[in-house]
TrEMBL record:
This protein's name: dCMP deaminase
Needed cofactors: Zn(2+)
Binding site residues for Zn(2+): H90, C116, C119
CDD domains: deoxycytidylate_deaminase
Coiled coil: none
PANTHER family per record: DEOXYCYTIDYLATE DEAMINASE (PTHR11086:SF18), DEOXYCYTIDYLATE DEAMINASE-RELATED (PTHR11086)
Amino acid sequence: MTSTIRKDWDTYFMDIAYMVSTRSQCPRRHVGAVLVQGKKLLGTAYNGAPMGVPDCTEAGCMIAEQLELVIHPDGTEEMVKKERCIRTIHAEQNLLLFTDRMDREGATVYVTDQPCWTCANMLANSGVKEIVFHRPYLKDADKVTALMSQLGITFRSLDHYQPPAETVMEPTP
């Protein structure tokens, strides 16, 4: 009789988030998110254009640029240019749109990527108690981490996690 090693819950739910991300048509990044209450999966979502609207693979990305003032620990200031696609609804936003507030109270969100500032703000008001992510999003990492700490929301990175090979997006040339 062969014994199989059972995956831990973090790996199991992050695997599902990565599988969900394969539905994304975003040429820049595939992101998946899942909502979990206890050990029960309550919802899944991925990033993409609104339903019924051509996505970025059909109509191209809608890139918006914005400048952000960053104040470094030594007190120096720097203007940083950030680019983002405004055609796409983020996976976390879709997850919040398609799940009930009651289900989110005290729940955990597993997301393939660290939430951006906007998604972090939305998750902060959603009722979730924990956010678990794999890939960092360095543009907003410090302020998102500080926000979660301030609100007492557990914010964990699965640094040593390896996504299933069939879910890894090939970089856009």
